[in-house]
Amino acid sequence: MTGDLESIKEELRDFARERCWEKFHSPKNLSMALIVEVAELVEHFQWLTEEHSYVRNRSKVKEISYELSDILMYLIRLADILDIDLIAAYREKMEINRAKYPPKSGFED
Q1: How confident is residue 104, by pLDDT bands cut at 50, 70 and 90?
Q2: Burial of 81 (0-12, 13-18, 19+ CB in 10 A)
Q3: Is residue 68 a contact partner of residue 61, using CB atoms and an 8 Å limit?
Q4: DSSP H/E element including 61
Q5: Contact at 8 Å (CB) between 53 and 45?
Q6: CATH fold label, 5-100
Q7: Per-residue pLDDT at 1 exceeds 50
Q8: Residue 19 burial (C-beta neighbours within 10 Å; 0-12, 13-18, 19+)
Q9: Cα 23 to Cα 10: distance, rounded to the nearest angstrom
Q10: Is the pLDDT reported for residue 105 higher than 70?
Q11: Cβ atoms 68, 41 nearer than 8 A
Q12: The pTM of the whole model exceeds 0.85
């Protein structure tokens, strides 16, 4: 991924500030907007088979990339409003996941 999280966070802050949207960016509203964007992503895969969900059509992949970008923007903005360091939270959660889900020995299915 190009760009670092901190610069994206600053850009999103500026974007909201320039449009006077800060008053709308409560944790409740941002989390609701986030779930709407996730639903828009899911629409691209609804009713597809597992095999067809591996989209190869370039224009469809572009549309999906925009939905993922919307999700990322709302996620970063929500974390910023709640003063959550996403990178630190990610690292901590990955350690929890590593302990909870150890690697397979190669004998399991």
Answers
A1: confident
A2: middle
A3: no
A4: helix 58-81
A5: yes
A6: Helix Hairpins (1.10.287)
A7: no
A8: exposed
A9: 17
A10: no
A11: yes
A12: yes
Per-residue pLDDT for 106 more than 60?
yes
Containing 58, the helix (H) or strand (E) segment is helix 58-81
Q: Report which residue type is found at 36.
A: V
Which tens digit of pLDDT belongs to each residue from 40-97? 999 999 999 999 999 899 999 999 999 999 999 999 999 999 999 999 999 999 999 9
Residue 81 in tokens: 């409003």
User: Contact 63/44 with Cβ under 8 angstroms?
Assistant: yes
Nearest Cα to Cα of residue 16 among 69, 87, 81: 81
Domain ranges in the chain are: 5-100
Region of 85 on the Ramachandran plot (φ > 0 left; ψ -120 to 50 alpha; else beta): beta
